[in-house]
């Protein structure tokens, strides 16, 4: 069988060949974007997180039992303790799991809140 008019076939072939460079096998590398910065921790959020501590450490951080009181501790002391629990440098049963759930910024905010109770 011979084609009556080979021109349409030739044009279609030429169009396909010119489109080939646009069909890359490797997708382009996406532009690098920085991770969004975390929003600052509000005083209300710090209070909410800090109040969770008082469930075990007593109202306003005054422990009535064998769990250490938080009341009167400086923010630096609280941060140090929480970082030690978080890293595993300080042995614990509960506090290591608690500390690992907070970012460094959240720990600092909680410490600042807890240190306000004298």
Detail the topology: elements first, then pairings.
Blueprint: H1 7-19, H2 43-57, H3 75-87, H4 95-100, H5 104-115
Helix pairs in contact: 2-5, 3-5
Describe this structure in words.
By secondary structure, the chain is mainly alpha-helical. The protein has a domain of 73 residues: Cytochrome c-like domain (Cytochrome Bc1 Complex, Chain D, domain 2, Orthogonal Bundle), CATH 1.10.760.10. Helix content is 50%, strand content 0%. It is built from five helices and no strands. The chain is rod-shaped and about 100 Å long.
Properties at a glance:
Cytochrome Bc1 Complex, Chain D, domain 2, single chain, mainly alpha
What can be said about this structure in brief?
The chain has five helices and no strands.
| CATH level 1 name of the domain at 43-115 | Mainly Alpha
Tell me the number of helical segments per DSSP (H or I, 4 or more residues long): 5
User: What's the architecture of the domain at 43-115, going by CATH?
Assistant: Orthogonal Bundle
Helix/strand class = mainly alpha
Which homologous superfamily in CATH is the superfamily of the domain at 43-115?
Cytochrome c-like domain
Number of strands: 0
User: Within the CATH hierarchy, at the fold level, what is the topology of the domain at 43-115?
Assistant: Cytochrome Bc1 Complex, Chain D, domain 2
Q: Report the portion of residues in β strands.
A: under 5%
Q: Quick check: average pLDDT?
A: 85
The largest pleated sheet is described as: none
Spell the H/E element sequence: HHHHH
